[in-house]
Amino acid sequence: SMPILSGGFGIETEMNIHALSLSFAIGEFETQYFERPLGSVSKLGTFKDGTVILITIFRMLFEHRPLVILSVAAVVLGLAGGLLFFPIIQTYFETGLVPRLPTAIFSLSLMLMSLFSFFSGLILDGISRQRVEGKKLVLLSVGDR
């Protein structure tokens, strides 16, 4: 019931996240493992495959929980903008002048980007919730057949 957008080790990660987002029950079953035949070479790469899995997790996290990602970005941008703006506003109150105008403009830009990130996260989170509800409704209608 889902489009697979990943390859390799990302498929398992994507399937697990899809199942968790729709509140599916996840089960395990035992399989038998055998030793690798002598002379064979493993195609597994710890860092390469781990990187694929991490990229898939972050991509799926952004798809399913965009408010989390964009809120973190908003906090980081807001703190950076505030830290840059604090000395400027302090100097302004002491002298009545703004000696570092480019820094003031940059800090204001960072704070605006912080606001845009947060509100974009709110909008995308609403869309993401609607997508999950739509998927659940489709699954319920298929289950009735």
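^ that was protein a. below is b, sequence first then the tokens
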Amino acid sequence: VKLEVTESIIHSPFVFEEQTILVVPTDLPDVNAPAGVFEEATAEVVRDACSISGGGAVVLFTSHRALRRVAELLREDGAVRWPLFVQGEDTRVRLLERFIESGSGILLGTASFWEGVDVPGRALRGLGIQRLPFKVPTEPITAARMEAIERRGGSSFEEFVLPLAALKLKQGFGRLVRSREDRGAILILDDRIVRKSYGAYLRESLPPAPLRKGPWTDLTRFLKEFYA
């Protein structure tokens, strides 16, 4: 039997150029800086951004340790005016329910919150990504796949690590816009997405949100205009 294959490209119904904005601060500490200074900067940016948006933010992490530290910093001295929901302090389903009910909360999550989370409407109007979601090379399965690629003369970073990070990043971005009515800013605090040569590959994997990069204090102006 001769089979005929028909291919088509289904364009997104969303107008990302109007519904979103991609913000990348370029003056934060290095993601691998010692003594937790990147977590301190993360907490400060989350506070600033939520003071502009009025909360309604999901912040995605690649590490439970970083998530817990940022949660501690946000709670210090009652610095957060918005309900804070932290992965590990309740079930995933209940955290999402409480976040949606609050309408102005901040939800901190790791792996399981990067995909399969649907928060339509104004309850989610800002998405933060602390670090680019690269696979940890010390994980046994990841290490084995990388070794196999290197053995045959390939580049494990370009052929395995980078494409997976791009997919994960796109999944994370997808939490923000779920309908034509949704609108929000996405903040990527890991400036390697604009500083490293592979950053262009990662940006091209994302929907066409207008990019704004520069010192954080300058970027708050764009956020204020966006949320006005």
